[in-house]
């Protein structure tokens, strides 16, 4: 069973995504990759961008059994004009847009005393400003289709913050931004929601390394989660897919934690 077929088994028919058109930033790895593959499995037409062209090529190979080829571009979403141009190109190639996901994100710098003003600015640029630019570029295309759905990927650190402060502050801003833009864009039929993943177990990333290198510490961390284990990217992607679909038409301006009830963002607590 290939990856697309496997994902198709967990995407419910009532979502009605066949032929719908979505754009996901940062879609070549981790959560972004899972969101893209969930959408493709549901029959959607998808555009995505990421910095590394080779990662996009690997994604295209996996998604080749989907309803339509991916529209991809290798770019830095913080580069002036590049994201806006990709939104327009994707809308042209897909025949419009029905939704977008601001998934690209990250952090720069250390603690308060070591992080520079440039570190704070860069962290807000990749998280908050990138999401603002994505939505601003997408709104005309969403309006043409009679509305749509936007999902901003925040984090457990946005509402249960831990160091570094610049990352938590940026992710908290996305939660507030979703509520504000839901009100602002509601008359256009555009819904905006925020999703806050918990600490996801992604191969090669922080928590997978902790599991492999310090299993006792990882076990103590998981023991603090009511379910006894960390949330997976697939579980988060399923929620994002739902929010993009017509099945979630009553949800707007919401903040949805997807963290299995995780109560601290790091093994060391807050």
Structural overview:
- This protein has 270 residues and is an alpha/beta fold.
- The chain has a single domain, classed as Rossmann fold (3-Layer(aba) Sandwich), CATH 3.40.50.
- Helix content is 44%, strand content 14%.
- Strands 3-2-1-4-5-6-7 form a 7-stranded parallel beta sheet, sandwiched between helices.
- Strand 5, helix 6 and strand 6 form a beta-alpha-beta unit.
- The longest helix is centred in the middle third of the chain and has 28 residues, at 117-144.
- The model has no long low-confidence stretch (mean pLDDT 91).
Helix content: 40-55%
Oligomer classification: single chain
> What is the CATH H-level superfamily?
NAD(P)-binding Rossmann-like Domain
End-to-end distance = 41 Å
Round the mean pLDDT to the nearest integer and report it. Answer: 91
Principal-axis shape equals globular
> In what order do the strands lie side by side in the largest sheet?
3-2-1-4-5-6-7
Radius of gyration: 18 Å
